[in-house]
Amino acid sequence: MQTVETLNEGLKRAYTVTITSKDIDARVEKEVAAIAPQVRMPGFRPGKVPANLVKKMHGESLQRDALNNSIQESIQKLIADQKLRPAMQPSVELDEGFEFGKDAEVKVELEVLPEIAAPSIEGLKLERLTAEVADAQVDEAAGRIASQQGALEEYAASHKAKDGDTLKIDFVGKVDGEAFEGGSAEGVNLKIGAGQFIPGFEEQLTGVKKGEEKTIEVTFPEEYGAAHLAGKAATFDITVQSILNADKPKVDEEFAKSLGLEGLDKLKELLKGQIEQEHNGLTRTYMKRKLLDQLAAAHDFDVPPSMVEAEFSQIWQQLQHEATHEEDPAAAIAEMEAEKEDYRAIAVRRVRLGLLLSEIGQANGVVVNDQEMNRLIMQAAQQYGPQDRERFVQYVRQDPMAAAQLRAPLYEDKVVDFLFEKAEVTDRAVSREELEAAIEAEDGDLKPHVHGPGCGHDHGDEKPKAKKAAPKKKAEDAAEEVKADDAAEDAAPKKAAPKKAAAKKDDAVAEDAAAEEKPKKKAAPKKAAAKAE
C-alpha cells in the first residue's frame, strides 16, 4: 500500500491510497484455498476440486470481496499510521478506470477531530436551587387525582349550565360571516371556568340548557398562534348536546383505599416522592445549563463542518416537522428561515460542547461499564416485540456505531456528574415557581451530542424537541402505584380551534432536557424551535 497526502487544511484531510494488484490477487488465492475444501462439483470427490475451477466458478465475487477488504484494511491502516481521529465516516472513492489485474487507486477524504487543549475544569462555581415539597402541593396533587376519578353524570334537560359544569357541544366558527378552517368541531367537552378556550367563549355559555342553540361573539387574542385569526372578531354557532357534572370524590382514607393503597398517608407519601423527583429534575436542569454555559465561555476551538452540518440537519428537520403542525405552517417556516443562521450557531455550540465533554470524560477516566451498557441495551430492546428483541441486542453488540449512540446519553450524564463533584456548589432554597422561572429565564443550549469513546458521530437518532415542551408530569401521573385511571380525561376539550394559543411557561420536568438553546438575536418561533432530547 502506498499513501500520498493531497490535502491538509484546517480539519480537512485527503489522501490517495494505491493498493497493488499483487495484494488483491494474493487475497483471492488465499480465499480460494480456504473455500476449496467445501466446494462440491460433479466428477470430483469432496474437497478435491482444482483451485483453477474454484476460481473460475467464484472468481468474480472473490475479486470483489478481496478488493473491498483491501480498501477497508488500507483505510484503517491509514488512520492508524497518520494518527487520525475521524470526525465522521471517511469518504472513499475508487478510481473510475479501475480494472481487476491492475493497481487500485482510492481517494480518501475526511475531517478530523480538533486537538483540544486540556479542558479547564478548575474554578467551576454552581448554584444549586432546591425546592422543598409543601403540604399544599401534595394536597393539590391528591385533589387532581380525585377530579380524574370523578364520574361524569348528565344533568336533567331543565338544568342551566353553571361555572364548573362540563358541556358537550358542536360549534362552527366564522369570521366576517364565513366559516374558517379548523373552526368547527362536534362533540367537544368544554368545562366552564377552566380557561381552556379563548377569552369570552366559556362565560357566554353560562345558563344554556341541553339542546339549546346559541351564537356567541368573541375576539381572538392579538398573540393568537394563527396569524390570519389574531385580533379578529368572530362568531361561533353552538349547539349544546348535553351538560355534565363531575362528582368529585372526597380525598380521605376510603378514597386512598379505592386506589389500592393502605390509606391516605401512603397516598400522600407516594405523591410527595413523585414531586421530589420533579424538583430534583428541575434542579439538575438548572445546574447543567449553568455548567454548560461556563464550559462554553472558557473554551473555543474549530469544529468539523461535517459534524455541524449533521447536527444542523437534525435540528432543521425537526423544525420543519414542527412547522407542519402549526396553524399557519407558512408563517412558521418563514420565521424559521429568518433565524436559520441562529440555529446553525446552535449546532456549532452543540458540537463543540459535545466534543469538550467527551474530552473531559476521557481525560478523567469516565466510562460506561459493561453492566451499565447491558442495562441500556435491555431497556432499549423493550420497545420491540419479543421476536425482534434478540435481533436488536445482537445488532447493538456487533455494531460499534449503534452501541456508541446508545451509550452517549449515559456517558454525558456521568461526565456532568463528575463535573458537579469538581465544582464549588452553593445551595439556595427557593419555591418551585422560582425554580421554574429561573430555568425559563435561561437562554441555555441544545443538549450536546457527546462524542464519547467509540462514537460514530451519526446523529440520525437524535431528535431535538420543540421549545414549547409538553406540560410537566403531574405527581398523580406516578400512579401505577396510586392506580389512578384517566376516566375524566374526556372532559378536557381537545379541539384546537377556539383554544387559547398563548404559550404557557415551559415547565417540562426532564433530567435529560438539560441545556435548552434559543436564538439570542431574535425571539424564537413559538413552537418550531429546537430543544434537548
Give keywords.
single chain, 533 residues, alpha+beta, five-stranded antiparallel sheet, four-stranded antiparallel sheet, 11 strands, elongated, disordered C terminus
Can you put this structure into words, describing what you see?
By secondary structure, this protein is α+β, with helices and mostly antiparallel strands. It is built from 12 helices and 11 strands. Strands 6, 7, 8, 9 and 10 form a 5-stranded antiparallel sheet that branches. A 4-stranded antiparallel sheet has the order 1-2-4-3. A hairpin with a 2-residue loop joins strand 1 and strand 2. Helix 1 (21-35) crosses helix 2 (51-81) and helix 5 packs parallel to helix 12.
Question: What order do the helices and strands come in, and which of them pair?
Answer:
Layout: E1 2-9, E2 12-19, H1 21-35, H2 51-81, E3 91-94, E4 104-111, E5 125-130, H3 135-149, E6 151-154, E7 166-175, E8 178-191, E9 213-219, E10 233-247, H4 253-258, H5 264-298, H6 305-323, H7 329-338, H8 340-363, H9 370-381, H10 386-398, H11 400-422, E11 424-429, H12 432-441
Parallel strand pairs: 5-11
Antiparallel strand pairs: 1-2, 2-4, 3-4, 6-10, 7-8, 7-10, 9-10
Helix pairs in contact: 1-2, 3-5, 5-12, 6-8, 8-11, 10-11
